Amino acid sequence: QEDISNITKVMFDVFVNMQKITESELIGLWGELLIIDLAKDKTKIIKAWHEKNTDNFDFHYADELLEIKTTTTNDRIHNFTFKQLNIKHRDFYLASVRLQYSRSGLSLEDLFQKILVKVSDFDLKKKLEINYYSIIGSFSKEILDNYKFDYLFAKENIKFFNLDSIPRLKENPMNGVENIKFTSDLNGVKSLEDFTKTE
After folding, report:
1. pLDDT at 16 (0 to 100)
2. Beta-carbon neighbour count of residue 72 at 10 Å?
3. What's the average pLDDT block by block, 10 residues per block, for the chain (199 residues)?
4. Measured on CA atoms in the order 194, 97, 58, 45, is the torsion positive or negative?
5. Coil, strand or helix: which one is 75?
6. Hey, is 44 helix, strand or coil?
7. What are the CA-CA distances from residue 164 to residues 43, 64, 79, 85, 184 (Å)?
8. What is the distance in angstroms between the CA of the first residue and the CA of the last residue of the chain?
9. How far is Cα 142 from Cα 93, in angstroms, rounded to an integer?
10. DSSP letter, residue 165
11. Taking Cα atoms as reference points, which of 27, 28, 70, 66 lies closest to residue 46?
12. Distance in angstroms (rounded) separating the CA atoms of residues 55 and 89
């Protein structure tokens, strides 16, 4: 009975999310799947993957936080919330991924299946499937096929940054000020040369 209750709740969350997903979130999902696919430690990265698309961070494992930002432009300009970049512990990293549309590239479904065949653990597979399908919602295959990106280009155009290097607001707002959002320009900002958090 407890299993049935849990499955029912999961399915309810999936159908609720179907009405809330935007195109930018689909592009963001492609970037998250890329990071999972490139990670050497699939168990760690999948366990760290957020279960709700509204969570503040994409990956949270112990004291490590990893946020993925994707862009289809030539500039690394990303959107953040004040809360995301003003956290107490400093073990926060950002992966900035540039994507390039390609008719011969990988779709979201292609990338998802590419990861799925590499995972044998039942619970990890289940988490992958629930996360993936709750995000893509009711988008048809025809629509999802519009989001095909060059895999090698994306792989070669990932840059990692630590918290201190990201331009951001630091001053705490006055009481009553909520939901602060801003864009951060990372063009010209020094990235991390040797980054192993996805391993």
Report:
1. 46
2. 14
3. 51 49 85 96 93 77 90 94 81 94 95 95 93 81 88 96 89 84 92 62
4. negative
5. coil
6. helix
7. 28, 15, 16, 9, 13
8. 38
9. 34
10. G
11. 66
12. 17
Give residue 197's pLDDT. Answer: 47
The tokens describing 198, both together, are 């996805």
Locate 30 and state its tokens.
Answer: 């492609």
pTM for this entry: 0.83
Identity of residue 79: N
Dist CA 43 CA 14 (whole Å): 23
CA distances from 129 to 70, 74, 96, 118, 124 (A): 21, 32, 24, 13, 9
Residue type, 177: V
| Measured CA angle at 68 (ends 82, 195), to 5 deg | 110
Largest CA distance in the chain: 55
Q: Hey, which residues does 106 pair with through a beta bridge? A: 149
Considering only CA atoms, which of 39, 36, 37, 16 is closest in space to residue 135? 16
* The pair of three-digit structure tokens given for residue 180, joined into one six-digit string: 């602060």
* Tokens 């279960």 found at: 51
